[in-house]
Amino acid sequence: MKTIIEPFKIKSVEPIRFTTKEEREIILKDAGYNPFLIHADDVLIDLLTDSGTSAMSAAQWAGIMQGDESYAGSRSFYRFEAAIRKITGMKFIIPTHQGRAAEKILFSIVGGKGKYFPNNTHFDTTRANIEFSGAEADDFLNEIGKHPEIRADFKGNMDIEKLEKFIQEKGKENIPLCMITITNNSGGGQPVSMQNIRETKEVCTKYGIPLFIDACRFAENAYFIKIREKGYEHKSILEIVQEIFSYADGVTMSAKKDALVNIGGFLAMQDEKLATQCRNLLIVTEGFPTYGGLAGRDLEAVAQGLEEVLDENYLHYRIRSVAYLGDKLVAAGVPIIEPPGGHAIYLDAKRFLPEIPPYQFPGQAIVCALYIEGGIRSVEIGSVMFGKNDENGNMISPPMELVRLAIPRRVYTQSHIDYVSEVVIDAYKQRDKMRGLKFTYEAPMLRHFTAKFEPV
Ligand SMILES: *Cc1c(COP(=O)(O)O)cnc(C)c1O
């Protein structure tokens, strides 16, 4: 097989700034050993997130110039609406400035005390918006998705049996809607199979519950279906995507992922009464229903991005380049979650640094080492992010200690990824030198963003 090349050539470039190891040691120390607090100019390869970090195409930039900034009835809105309708088949399409704005509007209306919202795994903003409304967010990830050491094709699947039991237990009248998140963000974008989406819909239909899809990475999920699920190998990505959404009654999406833009999102649904309520709230919090907190130019870029993301050559390159990094690390013995998902590689910090206990943050130690060794920014997903203290001040750790390397879309080339693998493998070889950390500052909530540390 020949090398899978980037399906684009580069017209516009952005320099990245090289620093020396000595400089990075000082920068990291000054930032309290928390790369969230580093100036982005001091980062060489930024793998903090795949959200809003995509490179736009020449056609998207052309769309930016063509954006119609009319307050009402903008031509760009109609292009945006048509692009989303073609993919999702939804009747009512509401622009929002991000995914969480769509969630906030939806759950302000359907949420509230005594309500339950099942999902394969709620993304943190979805969970936060549900809980903020007073309702409960419940995860029903299939058992296999909880085992990082097991390789399986669809580790994002919903546990259908548990979902049905839950509906019977809580009562269908207390479940305004069920969600399914594609791909499942946790675990680095593990896909959900078409069969699982269909079966989730069947259970929902049986109890008269609408199914909403959190569609942030719908195209990446569709590509996994094409290459892994029987019966889909000869279907086009558009056909697969249209089948996925044929099972949905509504959609929320952050366009910062698979719409290949830097800002944007939407809420879409089939139900007219719900759409009217959502639009009324949108006017209060986001803007008039034909722009919803976005500029006309943003709507153009989303519409164009949604077309480009369906290109199979793009998806082939996208999924393959994430797997390529995973393969290189596995070949060198670096422990990662397998198989790689669609948008990120997760290093397993417990196996990487077995000598450093969770209360000394092994994931954060790796994050620091990758920055110092290679100027790479990653993020800890473990005890720093999710650890909680009991009454005696002892830390309760989450089950896994991970480091996420999220890959921005169309931003880095194969040589950048080769460099990343070299830095990670080098760091792994020198893991004996890594030291744990302890807090010098810790905020009461969402502490990972602002925490400061020192080495122990
Ligand atoms: C990013 C994301 C969201 C929230 O979108 P924002 O644009 O960041 O507000 C919701 N769900 C999933 C699965 C996501 O990845």
Describe the structure.
The protein contains 17 helices and 16 strands. The protein has helices at residues 21-30, 58-66, 75-88, 99-110, 124-132, 160-170, 186-189, 194-206, 218-228, 237-246, 272-285, 296-308, 312-331, 349-352, 362-374, 383-386, 414-429, and strands at residues 45-46, 92-96, 116-119, 136-139, 178-181, 211-214, 250-254, 265-269, 344-348, 376-377, 379-381, 388-389, 395-396, 402-406, 437-441, 452-455. Helix 1 packs across helix 15 (362-374), helix 3 (75-88) runs parallel beside helix 12 and helix 13 packs parallel to helix 17 (414-429). The strands form six sheets. A five-stranded mixed beta sheet has the order 2-8-7-6-5, with helices on both faces. A three-stranded antiparallel beta sheet has the order 9-14-11. The chain is α/β, with parallel strands linked by helices and 456 residues long. The chain has two domains: 21-50 and 311-455, Aspartate Aminotransferase, domain 1 (Alpha-Beta Complex), CATH 3.90.1150.10; 58-308, 3-Layer(aba) Sandwich (Aspartate Aminotransferase, domain 2). The N and C termini lie far apart (48 Å). Helix 5 (124-132) links the parallel strand 3 and strand 4 (136-139). The protein is globular. The model has no long low-confidence stretch (mean pLDDT 95). It is 41% helix and 13% strand.
- The structural class is alpha/beta
| Gross CATH architecture of the largest domain | 3-Layer(aba) Sandwich
CATH superfamily label of the largest domain: Type I PLP-dependent aspartate aminotransferase-like (Major domain)
* Count of domain modules: 2
**Main beta-sheet strand count, sense and barrel state:** 5 strands, mixed
User: Low-confidence parts lasting 5 or more residues at pLDDT below 50?
Assistant: none
Overall, the morphology is globular
At CATH level 3, the topology of the largest domain is Aspartate Aminotransferase, domain 2
Q: Report the mean per-residue pLDDT as an integer.
A: 95
The percent range for helix content is 40-55%
In terms of quaternary structure, the protein is: single chain
Number of contiguous helices: 17
Sequence of strands across the biggest β-sheet: 2-8-7-6-5
The percent range for strand residues is: 5-15%
CATH class of the largest domain: Alpha Beta
Radius of gyration based on Cα positions:
22 Å
- Distance between the ends: 48 Å
How many strands appear in the DSSP assignment? 16
Bound molecules: pyridoxal-5'-phosphate
